[in-house]
From TrEMBL, chain A:
This is ABC transporter permease. The lineage of its organism: Bacteria, Pseudomonadati, Pseudomonadota, Alphaproteobacteria, Hyphomicrobiales. One of its GO terms (biological process) is transmembrane transport. The keyword Transmembrane applies. The keyword Protease does not apply. Gene3D superfamilies: MetI-like.
Automatic annotation (TrEMBL), chain B:
The keyword Nucleotide-binding applies. It comes from Manganibacter manganicus. Pfam families: ABC_tran, TOBE_2. This is Sugar ABC transporter ATP-binding protein. Belongs to the ABC transporter superfamily.
Amino acid sequence: MNAAAEVALKPAPRRSRGARLLENRNVLSALFLLPSAAILLVFLTYPLGLGVWLGFTDTRIGRPGIFIGLENYEILWHDHVFWLSVFNTILYTVAASVLKFALGLWLALILNEKLPFKAFFRAIVLLPWVVPTVLSAIAFWWIYDAQFSIISYSLIKLGIIDTPINFLGDPTLARASVIAANVWRGIPFVAITLLAGLQTISPSLYEAATLDGAGSWQRFRHVTLPMLTPIIAVVMTFSVLFTFTDFQLIYVLTRGGPVNATHLMATLSFQRAIPGGHLGEGAAIAVAMIPFLLAAILFSYFGMQRRRWQQGGRD
Amino acid sequence: MASVTIRDVRKSYGSAEILHGVSVPIEDGEFVILVGPSGCGKSTLLRMVAGLEHITSGEIAIDGRVVNDVPPKERDIAMVFQNYALYPHMTVRQNMGFSLMLQKAPKAEIEERVKKAAGILDLTHLLDRYPRQLSGGQRQRVAMGRAIVRDPQVFLFDEPLSNLDAKLRVAMRAEIKELHQRLETTIVYVTHDQVEAMTMADKIVVMHDGIIEQIGAPLELYDNPANLFVASFIGSPAMNLIDGRIKANGSASFETAGGESLALAKAPAASDGRPVVYGIRPEHLRLDDAGFAAEVVVVEPMGSETHVMARLKGGGEIVAALRERRAFKPGETLRLSPDRDLVHLFDKETRFRL
């Protein structure tokens, strides 16, 4: 008699209560979920909850606050700097996202063509994404410097302007400058992701469209764009979220200046909470970002819903 | 409807020439099939007719007009792709009407032509579905519908049946042939499957390594293969090819390398001792006590006939398609006799038919 048969003949031993509990699917899955649930709780839910709670208190640095209801929000409602930061954030997000999308798509379309040194160019495109934000922000700080700006220098040498441009000193120019820096940094993400999307489109679809009589614009309009919409929805949602919550670039370049012209909600929140010491008010500003972010997420939720043509099976 | 003329067409990618000057005349309304093993250049040739590949040298004319530099959309051709290339984000109706929409045809006309094509292909009840919601065979029909709607001068098919299962392939084969008989439009069709070529074509073009081996009607290729390649490519199961020599002193015969002697109806003049390849189709062998001996290796009963793979005495294997309903056993020795009038002889050097 072989070993397997012997095992099979033995009566099953009575197992302890604990061992039987471990066999239970629900208990086991709860057990496996525990570590990640703990991490989420400690590092995500707790800080978020604390932030929301702080927004309802008058906590300052070094002094535990008391619950003051919506007072922080009432103050913010009448605070023109807060409203300016809301305006700045929306302007920053919309302008940067539109530019990132347009330029990113354009780059992706170019990189998807047959061109020499393709791998090299693709690597180059990724560079701004690879460099840490603070580093590139410092580089831009130099580029935008009131005296040593390379742009001003070049333009003066070319005889186009006489005096250096005060990039970060003038409110309009400062806004345009930080948007440009953000676009520069955000393009690779959009371009590479859209490129990945483009490469999933079968070349025979383009050939079929060509034979059907479509020119290059019609191929883009009727094949590329519709096939790319699902990935565009995902990429732009992420891009909007990243841009809306941007902090590092502004903090390094302008700290919100000149005269709060580039203060975003994230930088203002930090400004009021840490250097300003008003933790409660800072938290309230941060909490005020939540409705905007939720709106963006809901928009993408409906935008990203699988389109009817993507669904498999029969109806 | 139009004729297509392919004249001394060559195609190179860099320094590698993959089509070495091919010429194919295709008459108006003809169903021509380009067949050959993968890599023979047949798909490239088709794509050059479509205008999807540049013609390195030579000439392609559609209805008498040289189209070398005419963009695809002005060639008045429609193509059915191997993977169907249906636009996934469009319904069947939109897929079929896409080319007409691009031409800015009136909505009513598009609708009417789509309906008509859908009627021909039995797609009417699927018009509002998306490609994802269709089976392979239905997608195949939509791809053909998209071509029919345009009412082109020439249909091009690039291995359209290779993604279908065996049973559906047989059904679609009949459907395409029927479609051709109904529309009478010129069809150029590419496949690697010689059965598809044999069953559907008016004319078969056998290609191999960038050259044309033979052009002819299906039975012409079957009865008179011009060379060893065509002989081995056309017909299923493939023709048996045996190396040996001709013996022409007295009565003509063929001697295999193993020393077996097979009688010939006649020997080519002055060919005594000439090394040749002897070809006999499996279906032209029959059981005969006076025949040569062969030991059964594998038996494949097909129902209507039985394919017996047997080993010759002096080495080499031979397949016989026998109609006798008899139990053949591996190891058993059979005596087979070839139909003397249906033997093909090929020169061993030139590989051409003698």
